[in-house]
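Schema walkthrough. Field components (list of strings):
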Amino acid sequence: MKIDLSLFFFVEAIGTIAFASSGAMVAIKKRLDLLGVIVLGVTTAVGGGMLRDIIIGNVPPALFKDPVYVLLAFITVMLLFIIVRMNQEILAGRSIETYEKVMNIFDAIGLGAFTVVGIDTAVLSGYGDYDFLIIFLGVITGVGGGILRDIMAGQTPYVLRKHIYACASIAGAILYAKLMNCMNGNIAMVIGACSVILIRLLATRFCWNLPTATKN
Amino acid sequence: MKIDLSLFFFVEAIGTIAFASSGAMVAIKKRLDLLGVIVLGVTTAVGGGMLRDIIIGNVPPALFKDPVYVLLAFITVMLLFIIVRMNQEILAGRSIETYEKVMNIFDAIGLGAFTVVGIDTAVLSGYGDYDFLIIFLGVITGVGGGILRDIMAGQTPYVLRKHIYACASIAGAILYAKLMNCMNGNIAMVIGACSVILIRLLATRFCWNLPTATKN
Amino acid sequence: MKIDLSLFFFVEAIGTIAFASSGAMVAIKKRLDLLGVIVLGVTTAVGGGMLRDIIIGNVPPALFKDPVYVLLAFITVMLLFIIVRMNQEILAGRSIETYEKVMNIFDAIGLGAFTVVGIDTAVLSGYGDYDFLIIFLGVITGVGGGILRDIMAGQTPYVLRKHIYACASIAGAILYAKLMNCMNGNIAMVIGACSVILIRLLATRFCWNLPTATKN
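Field assembly_structure (string):
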């Protein structure tokens, strides 16, 4: 049911770094202090998994018992804070563009990894028969951290606003939930995660957007 | 302890439709995309019950195991989205007034139904002896979805701002919690729900408002 | 493991009054109605403990089973509401300064008491071996009510914005978690709580602030 842990740890670690960075950048742009930057960064990285664990009654959430991802998120945030603090002009310079391109790819990888991990956790907790539940848990693991980040930062959650962000997670979650019953679990997991990443990157590249109810 | 399920399903369905519509309209007015409209609509409809279930440890919350109300909310939101998309001028026209009047009545029915269902769920889960708890759970089932809607949409929760909204739910919840011990449960439930609906409709009709601490 | 209950009840009561007042004042300044003032006040007072209990699966949260602090918060809020309502000019007068000074001290006491109580609850629930978890639970008990208050009031959480608020709680929580293993529990608890209060008061007095990433 689980693919090679070391590979998976690596993929989740990339996602953690990307999510922590996105939370920290929101906090830095809002001019929050060091603690605010740490809280938003770490919450973005591990908040989705925490919501998932609370919803299925897996308490205390896994992140508290084995805070390895919390630590990784913390280190990421501290590094980012120090770099920005040292180079004030960095936020306006050209390197920020490269940074954002790399982080966008990392973020897509994290979204894919977290989505399938969320489903896996739900299935391992014995809820494999509830299709809607496991898909929801996959998606909330993927996008929940970003929702908490935006609620705490006082902005309408990013996933509600634009780009095919949650949609990529939903599509991959449905794919993995369906495939896991008819083929090798590991392969299904990789297909699910990769489809999330692919949809997300294509959506960013080609500016795909969902329709709104009111035109113009 | 439970009244005729088919009647109750019908009443809850009306509430679900009204709550889903209110969430979807907030999202449409905020110009969120299709996914944002769906998420806000469905969250408003089922969020109160989810909060209640998490608070009493009834996990995963009922809505995930039997997502019939999620489906109903989803269909409601999609229909509303398509109608607004097809008739752009509808949001400014006269039919919107009729729509809002009907939805206001539906919303009151939903508030009444969800409040007594919340209390019933708490009692059936074995917390009948904790008066404060079951009243709170009734109220949070009634108003929780709207609170989540407003937090996600970045506005101060409606229930905190005006009209006797939560008050209607609180009054009916107290009434039902008291009556259920001294008369037939079904009748107490109907009285509780109807008192919520009545107070809510009278408050809208006569613009009742609670006092604020600072005048003018 | 627990110090004299009557003393502790007294200290927690001071914290409850301070937290309820701070929530009520935010609501009054936002011109919310009576219910909004009550909800924000009570949530600020008991919200941290509720979050803690949900995270460790201690459901329904303690506050619902024995709502003594809810009642105390409610009375505090009602008194404050009536006083402001009776004396409209009080919010602009000189007595408000004295009030804010007293409340600031009460708030520091509450932060200290809630932090160590949160850790104690976590340890008594059997999580004494998870350092990160118990420290987190102590801090969330201390600052969680204020975070909920700010999210509901639609402002960026105070703890994310300024003053050494959460930091005081974190420092005291770490201290208590470390000391409790190597000395008498009651004394460790008092040292932990007092260090929170001291850091908090010193930070207010000398305007300590954490650095931000961007200067000026």
